[in-house]
Every structure is written in structure tokens, then in C-alpha cells.
């Protein structure tokens, strides 16, 4: 359990951690599957659903990924220490300008529609993304966690 993994390293007393559910033994966990019927069953029974997205979901909108062909790191040398503030600002200005010209694609729109439809059924959809392009929000996603960085 991820909560236990992060919180039991000294921030929560060992007494409390003892009451947290033990992590599953991976040998007893279900193997990954492509069984669509099984997925539908799990999905239809789920009350809380997390949708996790990354750069690929926005690439179809024309937002460059960092490492792909035509990506940000092809134009800018990310691994080299910055020679000064102007190049850093130039890089971020370029990113802002690119993102402002892009629109949500069908994937963003379907995710927002999924959140809305399931919300009417009393179910919760949370979208977790490392993207900072605002396309999920502009598509209508409301329960959004934009997480990026280390």
C-alpha cells in the first residue's frame, strides 16, 4: 500500500502504522490481463476511479513531449546547466506560447465526459496527470491533480 510505504518512514508513529493494512504479497496478486469482460466488471463496480495520463495524451493536440521527435529537449539542451536566466525564461516562454495555441483532443474530452457521467451515478473520477498544459481542465475535467517534478 503506497500510503504505508511513504508514511511509515518516521512521520507517523509506528503504533499507527501497525494498524495500516499490510501490503499485498505480489505472488498472490492477479496477473495483468487483457480480458475486456473482466475489466468491464471491475470498472462497473468501482466507486472511485483514477485515470492517469502523461505527455502522450497531449501529444495528439500538438503539444511536444520532452523526449520525443520534435520534443522540447530536441530544441533545448536540458541536461546542460543553464548559462543564465535569459535562456531559462526563453525556454518557459516558448513552452507557454506552444501550450496556449493547443486545444483539447478527443482523449481529453472523453475523460471529462467520463468524469461527468460517472459523477451523476455518484461515482468519483480523479484524473492524475504530469501534464501542465491545462488541456484536461479546458476539456472540462474538474477533479484534476496536476503533479509534476521530483
From TrEMBL:
It comes from the Eukaryota. Signal peptide: none annotated. Transmembrane segments: none annotated. This is NAD-dependent protein deacylase sirtuin-5, mitochondrial. GO terms for molecular function: histone deacetylase activity, NAD-dependent; NAD+ binding. One of its GO terms (cellular component) is nucleus. It comes from Collichthys lucidus (Big head croaker). Residues 29-150 form the Deacetylase sirtuin-type domain. It holds the Pfam family SIR2. Keywords: NAD, Transferase. The keyword Ribonucleoprotein does not apply.
Amino acid at each position: 500500500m503506497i500510503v504505508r510505504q511513504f508514511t511509515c518512514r518516521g512521520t507517523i508513529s509506528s503504533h499507527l502504522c501497525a494498524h495500516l493494512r499490510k501490503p499485498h504479497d505480489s505472488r498472490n496478486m492477479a496477473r495483468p490481463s487483457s480480458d475486456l469482460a473482466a475489466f468491464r466488471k471491475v470498472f462497473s463496480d468501482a466507486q472511485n476511479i483514477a485515470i492517469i495520463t502523461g505527455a502522450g495524451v497531449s501529444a495528439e493536440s500538438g503539444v511536444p513531449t520532452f523526449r520525443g521527435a520534435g520534443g522540447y529537449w530536441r530544441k533545448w539542451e536540458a541536461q546542460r546547466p543553464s548559462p543564465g536566466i535569459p535562456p531559462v525564461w526563453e525556454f518557459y516562454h516558448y513552452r507557454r506560447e506552444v501550450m496556449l495555441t493547443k486545444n483539447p483532443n478527443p482523449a481529453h474530452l472523453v475523460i471529462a465526459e467520463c468524469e461527468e457521467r460517472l459523477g451523476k451515478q455518484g461515482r468519483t473520477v480523479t484524473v492524475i496527470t504530469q501534464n501542465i498544459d491545462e488541456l484536461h481542465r479546458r476539456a472540462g475535467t474538474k477533479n484534476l491533480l496536476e503533479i509534476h517534478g521530483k
